[in-house]
Amino acid sequence: MSKNRHEKLGLSDEQVLDMYRTMLLARKIDERMWLLNRSGKIPFVISCQGQEAAQVGASYALNLEEDYALPYYRDMGVVLSFGMTPRELMLSAFAKAEDPNSGGRQMPGHFGQKKNRIVTGSSPVTTQVPHAVGIGLAAKMENKNIVSLVTFGEGSSNQGDFHEGANFAGVHKLPVIFMVENNKYAISVPVEKQIACEKVSDRAIGYGMPGETVDGNDPLAVFEAVKKAADRGRNGDGPSLIEAVSYRLTPHSSDDDDRTYREKDEVDEAKKKDSLITFGNYLRETGILTTEREKDLEQELKDIINDATDYAEEAPYASPESLMDFVYEE
């Protein structure tokens, strides 16, 4: 009897079901945040919809107890995989004092949580790349068997931080995985107006590392590529560049109107390839996601998200007296 795709990758039925659960949880939290924003309860949403497969597939290929994640602002799937909770994500969206990312001080999407080795980012895009390289350098100097995963959009691959970081990692053979989440748009700029080469992964050769482009709607393809890159990093062979190609299913943010720069037909066509549909179908075809399991999962996630929403909405804001905390040293 031939093995299914996930079995060939060393993944059990329960592991791929858990991957799907995390993808679906990210999507449903995101959808709830849009409803909260449109009802005037939270100020801003920057969405993960359409990129969950790449985020979760990559994360599950790593050691979630020891490796480091340096996510970009859409990476809800990454931070959920690394241990951030729905309550904590909602606390950030509501800008409450308990928000573990910044105590309600930064805009949503600036993920950071020391206990789960999620390194905080910044509004200027791509600044997380040199930080990931620094972690790789520290791991090499201290002989630690860890890798750092840094993610960013295809637009960010044009920033100096990416090129400097990739060059340094390549020269020093550091255990860093550079993963481009190519969602086809840098805010309103389509990918063909961002890069002259055919693929972002083509840039890898200039930095002495392998580059690979994979289907970002296929979590198993992303898992396989990232696992290979992680093994390469742990073996001392240096960094890798992975381009996961998907599509941003929402406007850039809750403040954007994407109808001004792309056609509805284009978005509708992309929705047919939505990873939650395609991966869900794979799990149904393999008998892993039964009707009963699916029904139970929907109810479980609904309860989790309702709890997270209620908890965050009722939680206190930071006190005015704490305004200068973490700004000036006592």
List keywords for this structure.
330 residues, alpha/beta, 11 helices, 42% helix, 9% strand
Task: Quickly describe the structure.
Helix 2 packs across helix 3 (52-59) and helix 3 (52-59) packs parallel to helix 8 (219-234).
Characterization of the model:
- It is a single chain.
- The chain is of the alpha/beta class and 330 residues long.
- 42% of the residues lie in helices and 9% in strands.
- Helix 8 (219-234) links the parallel strand 6 and strand 7 (240-245).
- The longest helix is centred in the first third of the chain and has 26 residues, at 13-38.
- It is globular.
- The termini are far apart.
Q: Unreliable segments (pLDDT under 50, ≥5 consecutive)? A: none
Principal-axes shape call: globular
Q: Sheet bearing the most strands, described?
A: 5 strands, parallel
Percentage of residues in helical conformation: 40-55%
* Beta strand %: 5-15%
How many DSSP H or I helices? 11
Q: Roughly how many Å apart are the termini?
A: 67 Å
Question: Class by helix and strand content?
Answer: alpha/beta
What is the number of E strands?
7
- The largest beta-sheet arranges its strands as 1-2-3-7-6
Q: What letter string, H or E per element, gives the SSE order?
A: HHHEHHHEHEEEEHEHHH
Rg, nearest Å? 19 Å
Question: What is the typical, i.e. mean, pLDDT?
Answer: 96
Map the helices and strands.
Layout: H1 5-8, H2 13-38, H3 52-59, E1 68-70, H4 76-82, H5 86-93, H6 128-141, E2 148-153, H7 160-171, E3 176-182, E4 185-186, E5 189-190, E6 211-215, H8 219-234, E7 240-245, H9 264-271, H10 275-285, H11 291-314
Parallel strand pairs: 1-2, 2-3, 3-7, 6-7
Antiparallel strand pairs: 4-5
